[in-house]
Amino acid sequence: MIEQQRDYVLRTVEERGIRLVRLWFTDVLGNLKSFAISPAEMENALNDGMSFDGSAIDGFSRVQESDVLALPDPNTFEVLPWVDPKGAEARVFCDIAKLDGTAFDGDPRQVLRRNLNSARELGYQFYIAPDIEYFYFDPPKVDSRPVPLDEGGFFDLTSNDITSSLRKETIRTLETMSIPVEYSFHEDSPSQHEIDLRHTDALTMADSVMTFRLVVKEIAALHNVHATFMPKPLEGVQGSGMHLHLSLFKDEQNAFYDSEDPYNLSVTAKQFMAGLLRHAAEITAVTNQNVNSYKRLVPGFEAPVHISWARNNRSGLIRVPIAKRNSDQATRIEYRSPDPACNPYLAFSVILAAGLRGIQEGYELPTEADSNLFEMGDDMLAKLGIEQLPQSLSDALRVMERSELVAEALGEHIFEWFLRNKRAEWRGYKTHISQYELNRYLRSL
Amino acid sequence: MPSDDEKLLAVFPDPAPIDVARTLDLSGYSWKAINSSQALDKLEPSSGWFGAVVDCSQDPESAWAICRALRRRDNRVDRIIVLVSGAQLADLEMRDDMFDDFCLAPIHPRELDSRLRHLFYTEMAASRESLIEYSGLILNTETYQASFGGKPLDLTYMEYELLKFLAQNPGKVFSREVLLSRVWGYEYYGGARTVDVHIRRLRAKLGEEHANLIETVRSVGYRFGQSKWG
């Protein structure tokens, strides 16, 4: 089958007159990286991989082992629709390997592959459907505040506004790139939009999220608009999250479904949730990796703050959506803290690891927190044993560095580099004197 | 169906007998009528004649002369079918070297079609299946290219293979498990939901108006289009 896939790619390159093939991969921080090769090199790349100097890539290589191989995954080969309607460029996702062909520890895609293999050894397939939020702004100038393009709200039907047509064009492009969209709408905040993708296996979805972010930005840029996945660009309104709908399948059956349970949740689902809840604080630095991420995780903006679960309480960290009747396939849980600026490969890896730990160790699911937690006092929360998510990047890193689960899921290479890089980010932020402080203190103190 | 003009049949005489012409057209063969060995040379495609249909029932002498010419020319023609009337069956004797198969004239269209199909089987098998067409959708299995309504349809390998399998069997319902084993092969360790994922991707790429080409058959699986046989 690999042979046929290669043949398919090579024929398509030829038949569609592809002039450039972009080899895509992702750095540790979740930035899409790319280098282009000519069609003539494609056969070689498919057979032996393309070597390049990885030391220039964030989080990739120590200097002494700087050369790595990009191995194109032929099943991800797609013509890039926005570059040229006649399709002169294509992309293919790559796995990064060491020169001897073994998986390279610094490659997030390989990390996710490794975690998915662990799940597969237990008989599980991991499926994800994300709801991705983002903002459209005027192209930003240095040191200026973001300017929304509209003042619309949740589900507003603003037929004539530019952001809705941008969103439509984006969806069309996504669909031509094998990324089916389930829903899309104007979100709560000005110029904020949400696009919900249909579930796929986790590796395909991580690739899709990378493609998604690029497509959203490219289509916006074509219209001189800036799209951003920054978690909290505007004060006082909702930030952008990436809620993840998660399910495990075993032997073609939804392992989260149990018709006997009042919530239709299987023991496996409950243990998975228990794992996620118990390790939530440890994995937060990965699912919410920027200083700015923690300005979204505050009370009052539909973002989770407390480590809790409920069926239909949107203040919880895990929500169990009520699936349509008799729909065992649709039984799933929704993990609500991640934001769209995370590295999807690493975020999916640690989420899976936390859930699987719950299953393997048989964790007990805490009781449901179905009242509004934001209205509860700290004593009440303490009495219920409900803790908070880390409140800052610094908090999150402190919990993460003690986590053997995260170290194992990410591998030592990425674990160490990530902590080092993110501590530096925190230091840079901590020493910054903000406008807020100047306004507040300069004259009064 | 043979798509390229390369695989051209010579038909004697010119004009070709109407029932022969009709049968060839309906079966999708490319052909040219010739009346003489000069015409045979003049109209010969660059790759040579692929085969010949020679009607001996009207003007047997010229017809057998053409057969002889076809065999003796530098670029010998290997696949010759002759049409003879019942009264002419004796003419076939001692002429075995001049034809590969025969068909009674007046012809029965289905019989001629079957004989041609059999005669050309080995050479045409590949190209016969190289184009799969269904109401605007065209899949070229030689070049792996797909188009819909004349516009190229960019598919990943597995999307292409799935669509090919479905389009080759219009109107038939396949379960996820069957699709998984036939399209992905048993060695694939992803679940049957992979099929759902790819069906959705195909529907998205076909566009809203045509997404219903692939129907979900509740609790069974999927069906592509409708059977040609109704």
Structural summary, described in words:
The complex is a heterodimer of chains A (445) and B (230). Chain A is built from 13 helices and 16 strands. In chain A, strands 7, 8, 9, 10, 11, 12, 13, 14, 15 and 16 form a 10-stranded mixed beta sheet that branches. In chain A, strands 1, 2, 3, 4, 5 and 6 form a 6-stranded mixed beta sheet that branches. Helix content of chain A is 37%, strand content 18%. Chain A has 2 domains: 2-101, Ubiquitin-like (UB roll); 114-438, 2-Layer Sandwich (Creatine Kinase, Chain A, domain 2). Chain A has 445 residues and is α+β, with helices and mostly antiparallel strands. Chain B folds into 2 domains: 8-128, 3-Layer(aba) Sandwich (Rossmann fold); 131-224, Arc Repressor Mutant, subunit A (Orthogonal Bundle). Chain B has 230 residues and is an alpha/beta fold. The longest helix of chain B is centred in the C-terminal third of the chain and has 14 residues, at 193-206. In chain B, the strands form 3 sheets. In chain B, strands 2-1-3-4-5 form a 5-stranded parallel beta sheet, with helices on both faces. A 4-stranded antiparallel beta sheet of chain B has the order 6-7-8-9, covered by helices on one side. Chain B has a 3-stranded antiparallel beta sheet with strand order 10-12-11. Chain B has 8 helices and 12 strands. The model of chain B is unreliable at 1-5 (pLDDT under 50). In chain B, helix 1 (18-27) packs across helix 4 (109-119), helix 6 crosses helix 7 and helix 6 packs across helix 8. Chain B has helices spanning 18-27, 37-42, 60-72, 109-119, 121-128, 157-168, 176-184, 193-206, and strands at 8-12, 30-33, 51-55, 80-85, 101-105, 131-134, 137-140, 145-148, 151-153, 173-175, 214-217, 221-224. Chains A and B meet through helix 1, strand 5 and strand 10 of A and helix 6, helix 7 and helix 8 of B.
